[in-house]
Amino acid sequence: MVWLTTGYMEYYLYMLPALLLVMLAQGLVSARYSRFSRVMTARRVTGVAMAQWVLAQNGITDVTVQPVAGRMSDHYHPTKKVIYLSEGVYNASSVAAVSIAAHEAGHAVQHAKGYAPAAVRSALVPVCNVASRIGLPLAIVGFILSWFALVNIGLVLFATAALFQLVTLPVELDASRRAMAHMRTCGWFEAAELRGAKSVLTAAALTYVAALAQSVLQLLYFAARFSRRN
Ligand SMILES: [Zn+2]
Question: Which residues are catalytic?
Fold first, then answer.
């Protein structure tokens, strides 16, 4: 166990690029959200109207749009078939609000059209949640007991966290791509508003890239450490 605690410095040095990227991405998404939440769309299009337009445009009639508490808590719930939009998005008519609403509606379109990466991601959610949580403790227990089969099983389980981030990334990029396409074709927005939307969604995408980099580096770090001690 000693090598794990004394390895803290090494761990943080190793993880530094990923941690910096995560902080940078979070800072950027927060800054752009704040900035474009204050820029109102000329036509005063609300988040709920944007999401409903995307649904109608794709012939989706069994998905509802509902408000949800919190800041940036927007998400699409595939089993309930509900697009939840946060307080700052649902009734807001800012560039940030319509971009986020179009993105979440993009997830509903993926679901309705049977977009494969989204289906894979949904199937992986429960598996990865459990596996990634028990993986590392299991590997550590295996290491303490010098039971290296257990170490390897633990690492494989831990690796599913990275796998989950890996399938999440294309799903998120695709939702944003759909969002931008819908925002362009609806004809409600000016060029500057579309540029603002693009910058909000790009910052959001960067947080998923950062999360992937973090979990891959984390996995490589622990794999290297365990194999060195084997
Ligand atoms: Zn998304």
Answer: 104
